[in-house]
Amino acid sequence: MIQKKTYLLAFLLLNCSEKKIEPLNDFELSKNKWEALAVDSYSYTFQISCFCRREATLPKAVQVVDGKIVKVDGASYDEYEHWGIQTIDQLFDLIEEAEKDKVHRLEAEYDPDKGYPSSVYIDRDLMMADEEMGYYVSDLKY
């Protein structure tokens, strides 16, 4: 009986030690912080860095209501006119997609208090010129 208990204890200890719990990475920690705030209406300044028209790269005042962009620089949002502008949730999706796609270079920085991505840089392909994109978020208010 004691021998069976010893084997059972050894079996349980070995199985438990094999199952390591991985710590959350910066992306997961930050996304959890953002989601815990349960914010779906907010405003922020958004800027894109790319090899594109100058107008596209200027900082924009963005207003999001119920998770959707409704205004950019005080004008109603137009997906073609306001190309590239992302909500915070869309930025998290973009980062996650880039990680899955194993892009050449992905850099992301997160607000330490609220968790939202404050800076995202994606270079999808080393051999392709001028397709790199940078996204910057500041002055977030809700």
Describe this structure in words.
With 142 residues, the chain is of the alpha+beta class. It has one domain. The protein is 33% helix and 30% strand. It has a seven-stranded antiparallel sheet, with helices on one face. A hairpin with a 2-residue loop joins strand 3 (68-72) and strand 4. The longest helix has 17 residues, at 2-18. The mean pLDDT is 87.
Short recap of the structure:
With 142 residues, this protein is of the alpha+beta class.
β-strand amount: 25-35%
Radius of gyration: 22 Å
Number of strand segments: 7
Query: Which regions have little confidence, pLDDT < 50, spanning 5+ residues?
Result: none
| Overall number of structural domains | 1
| SSE sequence, one letter per element | HHEHEEEHEEE
Oligomeric description of these chains: single chain
**Overall helicity:** 25-40%
Shape: flat
Main-sheet strand order equals: 4-3-2-1-7-6-5
What does the secondary structure layout of this molecule look like, with pairings?
Elements: H1 2-18, H2 26-37, E1 42-49, H3 54-57, E2 60-65, E3 68-72, E4 75-76, H4 88-101, E5 105-110, E6 117-123, E7 133-141
Antiparallel strand pairs: 1-2, 1-7, 2-3, 3-4, 5-6, 6-7
